[in-house]
Amino acid sequence: MFSKGSNINLDKANVLIQALPYIQKFNGKTIVVKYGGNAMINEDIKNAVIRDIVLLNCVGIKIVMVHGGGPEINGFLNKIGKESKFVNGLRVTDEETMDVVQMVLSGKVNKDLVALIGRNGGQAIGLCGVDAGLFNVKKHVSNDGVDLGYVGDITNVNESVVRNCLDGGYIPIISTIALGQEDGKVYNINADTAAAELSVKLNAEKLILLTDVPGLLRDRNDENSLISEVKYKDIPKLIDEKIISGGMIPKIECCTNALKGGVKSAHIIDGRILHSILLEIFSQDGVGTMLS
Amino acid sequence: MFSKGSNINLDKANVLIQALPYIQKFNGKTIVVKYGGNAMINEDIKNAVIRDIVLLNCVGIKIVMVHGGGPEINGFLNKIGKESKFVNGLRVTDEETMDVVQMVLSGKVNKDLVALIGRNGGQAIGLCGVDAGLFNVKKHVSNDGVDLGYVGDITNVNESVVRNCLDGGYIPIISTIALGQEDGKVYNINADTAAAELSVKLNAEKLILLTDVPGLLRDRNDENSLISEVKYKDIPKLIDEKIISGGMIPKIECCTNALKGGVKSAHIIDGRILHSILLEIFSQDGVGTMLS
Amino acid sequence: MFSKGSNINLDKANVLIQALPYIQKFNGKTIVVKYGGNAMINEDIKNAVIRDIVLLNCVGIKIVMVHGGGPEINGFLNKIGKESKFVNGLRVTDEETMDVVQMVLSGKVNKDLVALIGRNGGQAIGLCGVDAGLFNVKKHVSNDGVDLGYVGDITNVNESVVRNCLDGGYIPIISTIALGQEDGKVYNINADTAAAELSVKLNAEKLILLTDVPGLLRDRNDENSLISEVKYKDIPKLIDEKIISGGMIPKIECCTNALKGGVKSAHIIDGRILHSILLEIFSQDGVGTMLS
Amino acid sequence: MFSKGSNINLDKANVLIQALPYIQKFNGKTIVVKYGGNAMINEDIKNAVIRDIVLLNCVGIKIVMVHGGGPEINGFLNKIGKESKFVNGLRVTDEETMDVVQMVLSGKVNKDLVALIGRNGGQAIGLCGVDAGLFNVKKHVSNDGVDLGYVGDITNVNESVVRNCLDGGYIPIISTIALGQEDGKVYNINADTAAAELSVKLNAEKLILLTDVPGLLRDRNDENSLISEVKYKDIPKLIDEKIISGGMIPKIECCTNALKGGVKSAHIIDGRILHSILLEIFSQDGVGTMLS
Amino acid sequence: MFSKGSNINLDKANVLIQALPYIQKFNGKTIVVKYGGNAMINEDIKNAVIRDIVLLNCVGIKIVMVHGGGPEINGFLNKIGKESKFVNGLRVTDEETMDVVQMVLSGKVNKDLVALIGRNGGQAIGLCGVDAGLFNVKKHVSNDGVDLGYVGDITNVNESVVRNCLDGGYIPIISTIALGQEDGKVYNINADTAAAELSVKLNAEKLILLTDVPGLLRDRNDENSLISEVKYKDIPKLIDEKIISGGMIPKIECCTNALKGGVKSAHIIDGRILHSILLEIFSQDGVGTMLS
Amino acid sequence: MFSKGSNINLDKANVLIQALPYIQKFNGKTIVVKYGGNAMINEDIKNAVIRDIVLLNCVGIKIVMVHGGGPEINGFLNKIGKESKFVNGLRVTDEETMDVVQMVLSGKVNKDLVALIGRNGGQAIGLCGVDAGLFNVKKHVSNDGVDLGYVGDITNVNESVVRNCLDGGYIPIISTIALGQEDGKVYNINADTAAAELSVKLNAEKLILLTDVPGLLRDRNDENSLISEVKYKDIPKLIDEKIISGGMIPKIECCTNALKGGVKSAHIIDGRILHSILLEIFSQDGVGTMLS
What we know:
The structure is a homohexamer.
Chain A: H1 8-26, E1 30-35, H2 43-58, E2 62-67, H3 70-79, E3 86-87, E4 90-91, H4 95-119, E5 124-128, E6 135-139, E7 152-157, H5 160-167, E8 171-175, E9 177-180, E10 186-188, H6 191-201, E11 206-211, E12 229-230, H7 235-240, H8 248-260, E13 265-270, H9 276-281, E14 289-291
Parallel strand pairs in A: 1-2, 1-11, 2-8, 5-8, 6-9, 11-13, 12-14
Antiparallel strand pairs in A: 3-4, 6-7, 9-10, 13-14
């Protein structure tokens, strides 16, 4: 990484040395990263995310990735001439759609991430919620009585297969499908929720949600109004003030549940920024919003 | 399993007792099962195969399943209006086809098998050759110079992820795709070959190929002409006599390679027979052809 | 175990598959079996009991056997011209008798059981309460002041030697003699009590008392009046109603103590029925009386 | 152990300190002691032997005891009115005799030794050659064609159960009966041979035969003619000179076999001397004859 | 250790046997010995102390030594022409003095002890409070406001490095310097206190302070007035009665803190007596004062 | 390490990512660093060296430091009015000098390095060659017959204490004194040699000698004539050409011995350059001379 005889080398060495206290702080700790949305589509960003993950694993941090894959699912449904339908942000999932969801998430997106980690020198294992009974679900019942089909709510997390992977030095990459505990059918589950529940079971140090917003903004239209840190007890007030609203509410709820379950901090960061995970973990202020 | 007050109970207990020497013989040993073809399509047979697998795992045998999924791939290609093309029995695999192969094998067939094992009380982990670098391949070069696209020949087997699963008590289920060592692209690989090479690396006791023929027949048209046992050294003569011919030749070659690599015995059995795996392992004569 | 080309094979395989949920249920659990009385004398039954034990060990159940040997002791006392005397069901045990008890139980009955397990492919270790201080006793004081000699009541159970055997994969077979904690002499102890106390210390799932009655009968003279299941809290009432009476009272007390100590269920079953242990463990209803 | 205010204390402390280099030398090493004959009958000597054993175990030496019990067997046979018959020093062992041998050795002598160790604060496990298949035998065929009955020659030693005991910190006490590999019957085996073969399998540092002679004497009638040390290669000459003769020949053969098998030294010492084991291990010259 | 053909051998063996119950009692237990003062200067006594330590380690006791080195420090300060100053028994420690303290304690006294253990066949590791953060301190504030310089009070004990040594079978020898938690400078700490705090963290069985007095005397001028045993609750009364006074008060406080922290007994013994450690541990009455 | 809202952040993240392949390459490998001379005196450089060491430990490299301390020894000898004498580059070491060497190396330089690592968040253990018998030596005999006193040549390396430290996650810091195997006295040993011999015993990946020259120069007076890489077989020629000469000869010999012993590469680098260790390990070309 150093060029021969150049002054820039010392600067680079200094950067490594600056990283030392952060590496020491998180050594042996577990961090769960939820990865989805646009950050998964741009190839440059995807490469940067994966390198961050491999680096963290390499310096002794136990890293777990939970991913979604909405755009890829839509693309494939389109290919077979099937329309994507959503009710209240949840995908209406009939049997044929569920088959596509399962295939695209667990067969395409998941294994492509595993392959990308492999090409960067890491060793990943691609799992889904069905593997070794990682997640169990029951059918989601929506408030307004609409039948969403194979959409499930998590009822049980059996994290031992993830621990087994981490203890072996592997990076577990987890797609969000799971078995219904009553009918044994495969269901689609929400990736934010899955990441949050898993982070609790793994006694994780951090939960990081990679999104395509800069974090929590005091003024939605002003990116400079980013709130860097939010205390757990201030959330109701922020909801009252409509600063937390819309699609941010369920994300904040996931974070809150993780914190209640013992996770030290939860982060909503902008996955579109190159190396945003490193920037968040290896700096004092971070790049998004930290809840604690 | 026993009905109250019925004479049949003692008979059932006796069956369990008869199984004892076979369980003792294979306790702690590894058996690799290649599963594919029609045995995967009929639901009753699939259920029976899976229960056999779970039972073997449960009585202390380390069981690994390697699977294909040709019919499902064809079905899905058909769905997106793409024709399946084969040259010398190998699928011509362009990039779009490879995407479908990857999704169907690793996302659909693989995770469905994992789910089925879960519903039968076992704990499986669905892997593919990409996970933790299990298989590496180079592009297959056919004798007649036809470019088959993303079809690969195995160059390296890194079985540690499979051992990690077995040591954790899990049943690894493996779909046959793998990374090209030069271009880092995903390739399709032959499931019989993958199973054979893996069985060698795992020092397996047995390699079992579940097929849709009764085994090796002396007279192809007479199912009663089954050859129960073949010695390794007699294979060239059987090829000369055309008793081994056609699609049986590569299967026999896989078996031979496994035997050369230290696997104790290789079995070609009829996956269409209910519980054929149990019948083969738990009996003196078995139901197909055993090579040793 | 399967005969070539016979229809009966599928039936046998189905029996194994039916056993699967029971094997899964008890995998890794500990079961303590008290073995004694007539079930020990008939050679066919003894063989069946031992095969049941070996099978259970082989499918991953941790099995411990505690045995008595009254008839063999009587036989040997007779041989040296010494009469067997009993007070309230307890053997009057002078020093010479104690020598015979020790020799017959720990040297003959115990090692014969170990040998029988060995001949059936299992690996047993024959222990007594003296080995590594497994049981300590004090002299039994009878209510009516009769001096029974070397009859002891258990004061301490140090189960670590049994755990050591189980962890090594061995089947511990335990004869019921133990050291007096005050005089360091060898004492005779009750096998039902020893089995019950040991089952508590081992956090056993089940305690099974193999007897020569069908279980608890509502009408002593009608074998069809078997009570399949008794709840712990109903026992006093059954004693009031004289349904539990005589020699059944101490057996029920042992079971009750085991249940109080955390053992999940206690079973009084008819050891004269072939494979009664398998029938009890591997079926919904069982063959005797289950207390829970 | 020290008396208050007495000059003798320093002397005692000095004795402990003198033992230090010997303890360091044998720490973690395995020593197999064959114990039998008159040293087993005198209670004072028996107590001294057992305390030596417990002390050695306590200072980190892995100690294994193999014992006989001829006099006790004779005593018991006499009790049931049966004569002890010997041919060429081997007991003629019919089925009834074998029963007595088994009971007395494994039930009486063995468990009494275990109890004695327990009373001295050690933890012993009483095993015989039948336990976990420790020894297998075939029927002994005598040179002159006399049928000795159940007398066996060792064909196989499976020492894993002994290692399991040693690893658990226990002292294994082993009585010399074993299963016939062909008929599954129990046989009587020679204790010197059993100790020698076991010492080889355990990679023992020393094999010690406790006898009732002072060791190897240059002149049988002069106890002062003791040969302290014999080199392996000098044995044939000593046999030629009739210095090794009679009952000493098989003992020397056992020692030779142990040495050939890798045991560092073999010792024939006088079990009638109090603490002869300590004296042999913890001193430069020892008290008997050392072969190396 | 035994001379050939001498009557004294049996006596020596008997001494070893007398040690047995004491070895059994402390096997696997941890004993922390504070070593300092005159007992460190006389070479004969030093050799005796070290042999005691090596012997205890060799018979399975986990032994930890904490040492001081006042006389050696004074000697060296003298060599560089620097006077030793004390206030209330504490060394006034300026930076140059601290350098000497560090060098003499950790470089000379400590490694000389390690070497002496090595020459006696033991394996020691020489540590100080700086190694792996074993002790942290803050600057000591004296009651009368005198600035003593680099004299520290322990604020934290991180005993994991000591456990690591003990688990590896090594004898940790610890010199009493430590890092200031605020300024990161090296401080001098009190060895009695360090030994007491460490004994608590290690759940030690015993804390032994080797001093140059016979123990606690009822009449300071009469060595025959030694109090062999003091109960914890009687200490205030003994202070009231001035039986505990002067330099004995802080020593008794260290012992009291150890006892409060769970250490079973604390001993103040006369290090000038040869083998006083053995005499204390291996006898009923001991040679000094035991607090419990 | 990242400043809020600054462009420089991405550059820093990129530096970390560039380090990834080097971290992956050396993960779990052992690197032995010899540290001495001027690089130990300048505080800024010392801090940089220590941070490099802590960083390497933190990213999963097993790092061992062997140090000298000539200038500090000279300084202290000076303080007590004793002159430093050298013959052929070796210190004439009488008993008083040896005492100072031992104290300064093991008590001052060693523990100061340990403290510095502690202040940078690492956990080090300060050892010397005496600890647990790490190095044994015999008295050095110089070619010209001059008696150098306590100067030793290594005769034995018992690296188990170092492995024990590395397995516990600690950084072993080793000062170069050792016991004479014949007289049990403490000797001074050469640090380059000690580092080289230890690197062989630890199967190290790299041996790095931190010196105060830029490496091997083709023209001693031209720092731009640095030879970046030397093949093992070319060394004799370089000696012939006088390119390797003077004090460089023993250093090259140490490197050669390490390479012969299986160490993958040996490096002579300029310790005066800030972060020279990182620059050497984390770059293609390095900053000094690599021998392989």
